[in-house]
Each structure stands twice: as C-alpha cells, then as structure tokens.
Amino acid sequence: MKKNKKYTIGLILSLMLAVLFFQSCTKKFEEINTNPYGISDEQLKADYKLVGEPFKQALQNIYAYRPEWVTQLQQNLLGDVYSGYMMPPTPFRGNINNMTYFLVNGWNEFPWKVAYNDVMAPLASVDKKAGDGFPNFKAWAKIVRVEAMHRVSDIYGPIIYTKYGKPNDDGSFDYDCQKDAYYAFFKDLDDAIKTLTPYADGDSTQVFKSFDLVYDGDYVKWIKFANTLRMRLALRIAEVDPTKAETEYKAAVGQKYGVLSDNSENFLVRSEAGLSHPLNTINNAWNDIRMGAPMESYLTGYNDPRLAKDFQPSKLVPGKYIGIREGIDIKAKADYQNFSKLADFGLVQLMTAAEAYFDRAEGALRGWDNGGTAQSFYEKGIQTSFDQYGLGDASNYINDATSKPADYVDPQNSANNIAAASTITIKWNDADNFQTKLERIITQKWIAMYPQGEEAWAEFRRTGYPQLFPNILNNSGGTITGFIKRVNFVESEYQANPNGVAKAVKCLKGPDTGGTPLWWDVDNVSK
Predict the structure, then answer these.
(1) Per-residue b/e over 304-328, b at no fewer than 16 CB within 10 Å?
(2) Which residue, 68, 77, 102, 234, could crosslink 281 as a Cys pair with Cβ 3.0–4.6 Å?
C-alpha cells in the first residue's frame, strides 16, 4: 500500500473494523438510498434523474473504482490471484494471508459490503422510486444487478438476492442457495431483455445516456450484453444442470439482437470523475501487485504478442518477463518487487466480445447449435482479442501447432521452480477429445479475459482450465486441499444475521470453508 500515507491493509482495517463491523450489511437492507446526491425528489424528476442517478454509483462499484484499497480487497487479493493472473510481492500479515490460503475475514468482507451497500442499495432505490412506471429503467437495473451479484455468488455461493430487503419475523434475512440465485438471475435477465427489446426496436431516445457509464444509453448494446451474460451463466452451470444450461444458452444466442460480436460492444465501465483504473495505483504507486507465474508460463511459451501489452519486463532481469508463483514463502517485499509489473490499464473491463466468441465455441463443442463450429468461434475469439489489442492478423498464432506453455523458473528461489502445468498447444485439432478441446478454448479465453480475475477464477473452478501451479504454502489448517474453492461467509453476517447464515451453510452441503465447492463446481476435471 501507499507508504507515504502510512497506509497498510492492517492499519486501514483496524480503523475500519471498529466502525464497520459493528453493523451488518443486512441491517441496512431496508435503508435504501433514496437520494445520495443532496437534491430534492422534485429536482431529480427532471430528465429522468430520479431513477437514473443511482446507476452511476452501482456501475462504478461492480468493480470499485475508489478507494483503491477497497478494490484491492474486493477483487485483487482474491480472484486476481486465484485466477493465476497476478500475485503480490508483499508478504501481508507475515505472509499468513489469502495467498497462502489463510482466509482473512477482515479482507474478505469487502466483496459483500461493496455489492450490498453500493450496488444493491442504489438499484433498489430505482425500483422504489419508479413505482409502476419507468419499466425500461427497472429492466436496466435487473441487468446491472445480475452482473454484480453473480460475481458475489461466485465468491461465496449462497447470497441474499430474491429476499433482499425482506426480513423475517425474527429480523433475519434468508439467503438463496446458489442454484436458486442462478435461476433468479436467468429470470431477471429474461424479463429485462423482453422489456427492453421493444424500446430497441422502435425508440431511438437514449434516456439512459446521462447515467450510463458503459454504453451511453444504447438499448441494443445493453440487450446484447444481457444476452452474453445469460450465455456466460448458462455455461457456468453446464455440468451440474445441463438441461437448464442448454435452454438458457439457446435463449441467449437465439434472441433477435444476439450476443456481443465486436470490440465496440465490450463492457467497459468508465469513472464519472475520470479516475484511472485502481490497478494502476496498486501496481505502480504501492508496488503491491505483479505478474502471476501462470501468465508468464503461457504467454512466454506461446510467444504471445499480448505479453508486452499486458505486462512490463522485470527490473530483476532486464528484458525478461518474470511472474511470481502463488502461495510461496515471501520473506520481504524487496525480494519480489522487481518482478514484472502490470502494464497500465484504461477503463474497468468486465466483458469482451472475445469472451463471447469463446463461449460460443464451448457451446458448439457441447453440441448446442448456435450458428457455427467450435473451431470457427475459437479462432474468431483469438482474432477478436488480437483486434482489441491492435495486433493485426492472428493467423500465424492461430496456426501454431508446436508452442507450449513454458516451465517456470524463480530467479530468487529455486524451490519454487516447476515444470509447465500443461502441454496444450494453440492450433485447433478436431480429432482431439472433448477435454483437450475444452482446455484449448478455456486457455485462450483466460488469456483474452485478462485482467478480469473474478471471472477467470470462476472458469478455472468450473473447468479446471487453464491448468495452474499449486500453492507451495497452505495455511488453511487442512480445510483446503488442492485449489481454493470459495471464500467463507462474512463475519459481520455471523454476528448480525446468524439464522440466515445457518440456513446458507446448509445450502453448501459442506462446511463454511475455502475447501467446499460451489453448486456449479462439480470437479469434472481433476484439480
């Protein structure tokens, strides 16, 4: 963290916990934000401000823009690391932390707190103020809500979603089991798409424009995003609930406006105040994050031109890209601070057209007819990712049948050295079996989705791909074997909503630990 302000995670949390942890998020579920901008409802009614302004808060907190230390706890020291994308050089808490599988309750409150305080609450105010009117804004709120809350569910499992703002007689709030939450996501997306389609068909008035930090009020792009989100979530449950998955998948790709197909449709959230990406501060000013060893292995092994776009050469070995292996013994920050920094980021990226093509490739692989072959969509996904980076024709890369991930060598500690986790090549081979084809699709999808670590971590747990390096240190006390599966429910919920949490734990069908798989994680592939 930023030393000139004497900010450390421990110091910040020690100050914050005294205030924040005495109150549960669920205690505030009925205290819906009605007007966070200090102006009257009469003023807000002009130009749709009454129902539009809350979207700014919600959109900027799906992935929090500020403060950066919140982002660090909301995602960076969770999914960004567990996905294999990144690893901090900093031995937080004496190296007894999330990276070494000692789950820090104070840190892991933040994905929950941000989602409920800064996304669910303002979006609930949209529904409340809209009443029986503004169906387009209420539909928009459903899409944003699903995008935010599926990320939360994919961290913890059961979440408070359909029962949000609806306390029981004893004051507790019920969680949805993850299956029920996912079914509610699909319903909300279906309802939203059906509501917005007539607007897209016949109304060119972009009433969202003043409040939309992604698509500037474009109905068609929001529908295409909702369809792609529906497709993403359908694949998430493909192994545990294949019939439902295929139904939702086909509804997404078959809808008249379809899914994302061009980089101009990528879901990129800008800051209303023009703030820079939080990772730029965490990476450059605080020197608290670096390239992950798996990214080094795959990108260098493939001679991937995206390497130089995503990372900087190390200062330790000039001209060479070096990542840090997850879960290693780090004595001092100085030991690994000179490994490869991340390249600077622009807007917060939550979904791309490249991801959509890889999702279509997987659907085709599963036999779900969606207008093309697995190979054609796979190759289109790579080309679309190259186009996003401005790298031109990807033909040579697509036809590379020999390059493989590289072995990992830690120049600071040979005990961390390890052979490449996979031998998967790039070029499509239709004679390969299902798992090899799936690994090829997900590996390229993983490269293309960077730096969206939460989604990449979910895909790894769902499929086992790309193959990653295991932790060397495991401080879980035996609760996690292999790779981490989830994060335990937040401590403030245990304190303020114990009956709700008790019911949620029953949904898990296992203990509330990092080693219990989520509903959709059926261990189809050895992990």
Answers:
(1) bebbeebbbebeeeeeebbbbbbbb
(2) 68
20 — phi, psi (to 5°)?
-75, -40
Residue 39 lies inside a defined structural domain of this protein: no
> Exposed e or buried b for every residue in 204-222, given b needs 16+ CB within 10 A?
eeebbeebbbbbebbbbbb
Determine contact, residues 48/207, Cβ cutoff 8 Å. Answer: yes
CB 148 within 8 A of CB 192: no
pLDDT per position as a tens digit, 391-408: 999 999 999 999 999 999
Compute the distance between CA of residue 263 and CA of residue 387 in angstroms, rounded to an integer: 8
Contacts (Cβ under 8 Å, ≥6 apart) of 319 = 313
Two structure tokens written together for 270? 């800008």
Cut 0.90: pTM above it: yes
Q: How far is CA 295 from the centre of its chain?
A: 17
Q: List, in sequence order, every residue forming a beta bridge with 267; answer none if it has no partner.
A: 351
Structure tokens at 182: 């996912």
User: d(Cα 43, Cα 58) in Å, to the nearest integer?
Assistant: 21
Bond into 54 cis (ω within 30): no
Residue type, 520: W
- Does some domain include residue 9? no
Quote the domain boundaries for residue 26.
21-34+46-508
* Local confidence band at 499 (pLDDT 50, 70, 90 cut-offs): very high
CA distance 282 to 280: 6
Look at residue 526 and tell me if it is in a domain.
no
Mean pLDDT in residue range 35-53: 65
Query: CATH number, domain at 98?
Result: 1.25.40.390
Rounded alpha-carbon distances, angstroms, from residue 432 to 317, 339, 370, 396, 466? 38, 37, 21, 21, 17
pLDDT at 28 (0 to 100)? 44
The contacts of residue 293 (CB under 8 Å, 6+ apart) are 84, 87, 323, 324, 325, 326, 408, 410, 416, 469
Q: Tell me if 314 is assigned to some domain.
A: yes
Query: What are 270-287's pLDDT values in tens digits?
Result: 999 999 999 999 999 999
- Average pLDDT of span 55-77: 98
Number of domains making up the chain? 1
Exposed, middle or buried by CB within 10 Å (0-12, 13-18, 19+), for 373? middle
* pLDDT on residue 16: 41
Rounded-to-integer distance, Cα 332 and Cα 430, Å: 48
